[in-house]
Amino acid sequence: MQRIIASTLREVSFYGAVAFFVVLTAFPFYWMLITSLKSNPDLYNVTNIPFWFNEAPTLEHFRYLFEDTLFARWLLNSLVIGVCVVAITLVTALPAGYSLARMTGRSGEALGIGVFLTYLVPPTLLFLPLSRIVASLGLQNSMWSLVLVYPTFTIPFCTWLLMGFFKSFPREIEEAAIVDGCSLFGAFIKMVIPLSLPAILTTVIFTFTLTLQEFVYALTFISSSAQKPVTLGVATDLVRGDIFFWGEIMAGALIASIPVAIAYNFFLDRFISGITGGAVK
Amino acid sequence: MAAVLAQNIVKRFENVLAVNGITLAVPDGEFVVLLGPSGCGKTTFLRIICGLERQTSGNLIIAGDIVNDVPPRARGVAMMFQSYGLYPHYTVRNNIAFPLRTQRVGRAVIESKVDWASRLLGIEHLLDRRPRQLSGGERQRVALARALVREPTALLLDEPLSNLDAKLRASARQDIKQFQRRVGVTTIYVTHDQVEAMGMGDRIAVIDRGKIRQVGTPAEIYDEPADRFVATFVGTPPMNLLTHNGAHLGFRPENFLPKEMIRGGDFSEFSFRVDRSEYLGSERIVYGAIEGFDSSQPITAKLPAHGAEQTLRPGEWHPFAVRNKDLRYFDQDGKRTDRH
């Protein structure tokens, strides 16, 4: 009897803790969803309960977002910036991470730490010198300035991420390929890249998320609406003076966060395990 | 002509001298075993031969050409790694075909060679599987097939049996040896296991601290060790060594017998105090000490399993003897000498 009580108690506390964190993390999204579907009179009546519909839900905010703002354009801008930055990051960070992982001795380690340190310099400090560079390249007020600037933080981060992965990559596979007739580069392309898909996918998702949530550079370099990424567009064009278009802001944030949530859920799990099984030992 | 010829190979890693002047000639078709304790430089030497490491100095000649600066892919040697290094994203068929593909061999030729190699190793039924679906023994065969498929000048094996369990290891040893005879490929085999070395090698090169101590047939290594290191590294239990006036006297445990078991010939007699004995089924190992000699290790005698246990009681002194032809002498530096 006592044992049953003890085990019940344990389960209750376990699920209680899980439930607490689920509520803590999911509640903002729930509130965001509710707000985006509320009609304005419901939204701005302070006597109404904010967490549920007091009047009939409406898609008015979504309609406004797509028809009366450049929201679709902002989404496209974010996508273009994201894809370009991901491509630049992969092309740079893959060979860099691999080289750093394979450089033995102190120099490799020091370089790796140095690369990571550059990631730690905050954008609030860097945007000043970077704005000079952007201006001298004639890219001010263009989304291509972001394609140029975002790799300054995605490359160090991803180089570091990939370096950790490559360090655990069985070296014998590359060496076997080299003895079997590949050059070092050939072994990298034919063995290391295909077998690193889980890490590469992780890098892609992280990079894309980083570009999607960046704000400081976008705010300082871009002022015309048509060039803004979604993060900036929602936050600047939907706040006019001291009027917040809460319904539209929440609808915009919701739409922007959906692809990231989907990417995390579907891809990461599938690729994270099992690909290198059976290579060695 | 030697398939592989190493001339005074030296390899230095920062402050460590991993290979300290190895000279070795491996004739065509020979099976040479590099035997030594872990960290002695044998694997580094093998990696120098296949080109994964560049020697600090010395010449490496493969099939008559100096290959010091030739990349691994152009040396014509194949290597089988300790943990095989199979390509996990390829099927067995593509694993075996890979060395041919990189050389841009025609598709029909690839097919027939993969066929030949897989039949040779009895893995035809596994061709469409992936490495993770194979057992340890099967993986080893795939790795061997991949190494052989392009008919290399030399086949390099780096402790290929260390990942197999004891039972599988014995049969794999047999397989590799038989198969090497059949194909006749020059083979350099690295191991720290003296049983593998003795059982498989046409010749053995015993390596310690980056230097070759002795090269010879298994019988030469065992019966005529060139120095104290070889004498004590090869053989279980190792050769007994008695220190006398700074020099050393050595004899194998199986030659150290109760005096009454020695019939005929000259022999030297010792008074042996039995401390304990181990019954191993097929034999009995007796540990003890010899009167009048210093020895850092206990002296061992390898006796038949049955017959002597009644008379050899622990703590008592017994007359033991060694035939004089079985005594080996080493000077103060540990080098073999003819006489004391």
Question: Could you walk me through the main structural features you see in this protein, from its secondary elements to its overall organization?
Answer:
- The complex is a heterodimer of chains A (281) and B (340).
- Chain A is an all-alpha fold.
- Chain A folds into 2 domains: 2-58; 64-280, MetI-like (MetI-like fold), CATH 1.10.3720.
- Chain A is 75% helix and 1% strand.
- Chain A has 14 helices and 2 strands; from the N terminus they run H-H-H-H-H-H-H-H-H-H-H-H-H-E-E-H.
- A two-stranded antiparallel sheet of chain A has the order 1-2.
- The longest helix of chain A has 36 residues, at 2-37.
- Mean pLDDT of chain A is 88; it is low at 273-281.
- Chain B is of the alpha+beta class.
- Chain B folds into 2 domains: 2-228, P-loop containing nucleotide triphosphate hydrolases (Rossmann fold); 238-337, Nucleic acid-binding proteins (OB fold (Dihydrolipoamide Acetyltransferase, E2P), Beta Barrel).
- Chain B has 8 helices and 19 strands.
- Chain B has a 6-stranded mixed β-sheet with strand order 6-7-8-3-9-10, with helices on both faces. Chain B has a 5-stranded antiparallel β-sheet with strand order 13-17-14-15-16, with no helix packed on it.
- In chain B, a hairpin with a 2-residue loop joins strand 9 (203-208) and strand 10.
- The radius of gyration of chain B is 24 Å and the shape is elongated.
- The mean pLDDT of chain B is 91.
- The A-B interface holds A 105, 170, 172-173, 175-183, 186, 191, 194-195, 275-281 and B 14, 50-52, 71-73, 77-79, 81-89, 98-99, 101-103, 130-134, 136, 139, 146, 163.
